[in-house]
User: Fold these one by one.
Assistant:
Number 1:
Amino acid sequence: MNNIRVVVVDDHQIVRDGLVALLGALDGVEVVGTAEDGREALHVVEEARPDVVVMDIQMPRLDGIEATRFVTGKHPEVRVVMLTMNEDDDTVLSAMRAGASGYLLKGSGAEEVHNAIRAAAAGGMIFGASLAGKVALYFTSMSSPQQQEEPFPDLTDRERSVLDMLAAGKTNDQIARELYVSGKTVRNTVSTIYTKLHAAGRGEAIVKAREAGYGKNS
């Protein structure tokens, strides 16, 4: 059986090195790359093509949740396990919506991390015991038609990310830098958003977005 190929992403070198040492000692796991932030992670995943990415959340340049959204969007075969100190409800649910296959706290033991990586690589999902209630609540809410309704259902995940940044008052150039795409790509995406929101321009789109709750976390 082939080893599970893993990329480790964390902006703290001590934590990153510790994870590499821990994972390297596990049977059936091979660390094939590391990255110190979400943006670098996109390049490493592109080159290393891992089975699983162990991803921190709070990082400079591009956070782990946005990086997870891009990784799972472009490489759906790659599974992402979040390993973080943060266990608040919004962060856990945001990670799940971004496509994470697991969410563990940094206090988790080697066996728990190993199980999560194996489960993710096999196509499953695993969350630490302390997070079980939050995950159950998420799936319960997903079963309710009222909770499934989301503003602007025609928007793609990428368009939602751009709209969130627009609503936060960011310029096209700032959005391009944060998403690591060209200015032309952002302009085209913004134009598509205007069309889908039936907005005459940036101001109207921002008003509609803020009324729907966008722009609060960007």
Note: Residues 14 and 20 are 10 Å apart (CA to CA).
Number 2:
Amino acid sequence: MSARVPPRRSPSCSPLGPRAVALACALGVASVAGASRAEDAQTDAWDGDYGKRAKVRSDFFLGGGLGVLAGQASGYPNEIGKIDVPEFEASTGAGFGSSMSLWLGGALTDWFVFAFGATTGGISGGGYAAGGAAFVLRVEAFPFIARSGALRELGFQSSFGIGTLTIEKGGDTAAEGGGMSYVSAGAFHESWRPGTFALGPSVDWVHLWSLTATEHVAQVGLRVAYTTGP
């Protein structure tokens, strides 16, 4: 009698075969899904609108403003023996006046403007008249540009620079600020937009200071801007 030889199992009938195939399929699906998520993440990443065509403002920027001031200025003669001596202090107390500004720069995107400029103004009070000027670096931002309606026209500004301030009484110099630090911050709204011009109200806080003088003023005014694009 011949011995029976057990039948050989086909590799496809191995109990590990279906599991291995299922595992390979799962790994393949996971790899494709991971690659898709990575590609989506790269697509969704914000690049600051680089290369995106401007819809509101772009290229050359020219701006200016007129304002009404309310605040206080005080200081001492620019002489060592008179600085911080109360009897030589000159102060406007609560004073009022006006200002004028001009800026020149570029609208890099719809939401960001970078410019250099100059500002001048003065206030009077308590028998004193304080006048000053400054050269500034101005940055404007429109954080709600993606919104619709009036909110997209709301902007904020920060300005930094160097200036000077002189306080006079009866035509004579009572105090001098010398070279002074200048900082300003505020908000504005481009309420009217005829073409590439924009006009609207503005509100700012301005501060100048040095060892011999200081000035704090609030400013309410009209801002005008022009850009060559879009």
Note: The chain is about 10% helix and 55% strand.
Number 3:
Amino acid sequence: MWGKDRPDLNQVGSQQMAYPVPAYGIPALSDAPRGYIPFHMEHYGRHGSRWLLNAKDYQGPVDILAKADSLGKLTPRGQELLTQLSKINEASHNRLGELTPLGHRQHREIAGRMVENFPQLFTTGTNVDAKSTVVIRCILSMANEIAELQRLVPGINVTCDATRAYQPVLAYNSTDTVAKNLSKAATKMNKEFNERHSDHSAFLAKVFNDQKYVNDSIDEKDIFEGVFDIAVNVQSHDDQPDLYDLFTEEELFNQWLIKNAWWYAYSGNSPQNNHRSHWNQRVLLENIIESADTAMTSPLQSVNLRFGHESIVLPLTILLELNDSAYDTDNIDTLAENWRNFDVFPMASNIQIVFYRPKNRTENNPDDVLVKVLLNEAEARLPLKPVEGNYYRWTDFRKYYTDKLASFSTKFEQ
């Protein structure tokens, strides 16, 4: 229902979806053109699976259900749900927003596959520079990848940092007046779209035994969305109960449609934000290009790792125009057929830009350098003419995106 090639109810979680491994496996990577070896990587990765962010995310549904239970208004399944959510709420105390054990494992496994996929890059003497936002779940995600890299390749040279000085690069989100005004169009579109996809009657009937009480005393949207958010985040944990039985597939799918439309309107290449939001990551892309330019001048292997959030991974993916992420439509009703948020930014999502040069090069020539981009470890298409398969010439890559970044002030006069 969410994609015939890989149906999975967990996909309805949007950004709450756990990194899709090992359920789907990782596609095999193509061989580099003959004579080429990897020598550098530019990376941006989201933190791994986490607890929900706010106390009210857990406490709110418990309070609603507890009040209803005190009045005898819950079904047996509703009473069971209250017990389940109360235990989850208690376990969440002092854990809000923190990485779960699964989140730790995701990053260690990603690091392991980096070494496996690019053994010529991750070797004794390779310089690895890692930077994270100051958010603890991002710092711990970085720490897990670094620890695994050092375990597998003891001879690598590692530096890492998490400082507010680097926040404008790793986690820039525009708060200017133009962006705020543009969001009004997105808000209007989402409100109308939501109203057409918000039938919660089946869920409510499973939980509450008195329709009049629901009509008079319950905010349907509040309780539905509260339980839904906990239910889809269960996949971030190893020990929480499956709650999908509370919803019909139609309810789950409609809530995903709403979330998918929201992310597209606010962060996609969409008319609702005047095709502007993804440009927020122009500073990050400039940093990636500048860092790669520096790597070109060194004979050593090097890796630049960056750790942050899904609100950065998505617009960066779109700014790079990976695969079909820059899809542009004003028909929100057909959006899901062409653009799916979970394809881009599950927990621990990542972009890896891998650089190759001739093994037996005799001079430092940027024209000889090729790049391949991985989105969540699968080879991605770029809006460029490839040299071979998904390999592109670095000089073409650099010119295309440098010219694109230079066009920003012309496109969006303040």
Note: The CA atoms of residues 74 and 208 lie 4 Å apart.
